Amino acid sequence: MSFLSATLSRVKPSPTMAITAKAGELRAQGRDVIGLSAGEPDFDTPQNIKHAAIAAITAGHTRYTPVDGIPKLKEAVVAKMKRDHGLDYTTAQVSVGSGGKQTLYNALMATLNPGDEVIIPAPYWVSYPDMVLLAGGEPVVVEATLENRYKLTAEQLEAAITPKTKWFIFNSPSNPTGAGYSHDELKALTDVLMRHPHVWVMSDDMYEHLAYDGFEFCTPAQVEPGLYDRTLTCNGVSKAYAMTGWRIGYAAGPEVLIGAMRKIQSQSTSNPCSVSQWAAVEALMGTQDYLAPNARIFRRRRDLVVSMLNQIDGVECPTPEGAFYVYPSIAGLIGKTTSKGTVIDSDETFATALLEEAEVAVVFGAAFGLSPNFRVSYAASDEALREACTRIQVFCKALK
């Protein structure tokens, strides 16, 4: 009998973290690897947020806090949800966790029973299916194709719902594609959900402030107020505020669900870092002036990467509405051979060869549930992106 849990056999380690670690190993060997695999802004955390953390330390805010967040941070979340989305919540409807991932995981652990189904559009963030499996549920993956710009249609959602469906996980703008749903596109999905009152919505809004070309972000409970009582709206400070290492995520939803999530957290991690919580208060309630300039920088980088990748024969890269990722198709490269004799029979083989032969780290599409593709994170300097894309061009041109 194995000492390890049988549940563990249902899941796999995060591919993005594995590739980032592999790139780090090659750098340690002296290789000139450009990493475009990690979903982490290259900007520094804004000074006002740093100063708030220092002030918290000086004031002695270094002890245990309430399990799922200090009152001030919950009040900041309530104010943010009203300010940005017109949604009314109380602090009792807010949960704060150690990163956005924990709030999602807590909700799934608190609600899923064996056999419960969770609809997940693909391409998806790598952790969604495995979190569902760890919680005892069954992921139902529905492919959103390049032809539909990686967006799920209302017809696809309708067809995927069964009596066993408990959650629909929605992410816009998306990791890994950057695809953003317009108000009308989201309304088509919420109209379906209104016909199925047993299905709850988990909306991952982590990239809401990274939107380009006039794209206007909206969230399900905002588009369809009728879903308010069965929607968990999840977010965090990692991406927009360049606070990945601070580990603060939050969610707002029905009080009964928030209470269940609190119970899970009370027996796992307890409270998030006290100092990070005070920094997050400043992030949400302090100046937001840097958000628009940062978004403009990301948009410029997006345009650079999309342009250079679309110059490659066999690669098709749509222009995303938001986030800081592109998700090009390499359907035209499958079956070709690298200059060192590697046959490109999958996007995983492509990404491995690209790392080993061209020293560029990207994440293969199978990790996100849709192939043959790869994900590029353009949260890097213009110089690094230009050099990386040049290497990708040279690598692909040499394919036979």
UniProtKB/TrEMBL annotation:
Its cofactor is pyridoxal 5'-phosphate. The keyword Transferase applies. This is Aminotransferase. It is an enzyme of class 2 (transferase). Keywords: Aminotransferase, Pyridoxal phosphate, Transferase. Residues 32-392 form the Aminotransferase class I/classII large domain. Its EC number is 2.6.1.-. InterPro entries: Aminotransferase_I/II_large (IPR004839), AspAT/PAT-like (IPR050596), NHTrfase_class1_PyrdxlP-BS (IPR004838), PyrdxlP-dep_Trfase (IPR015424), PyrdxlP-dep_Trfase_major (IPR015421), PyrdxlP-dep_Trfase_small (IPR015422). Belongs to the class-I pyridoxal-phosphate-dependent aminotransferase family. One of its GO terms (molecular function) is transaminase activity. Pfam families: Aminotran_1_2. It comes from Lutimaribacter marinistellae.
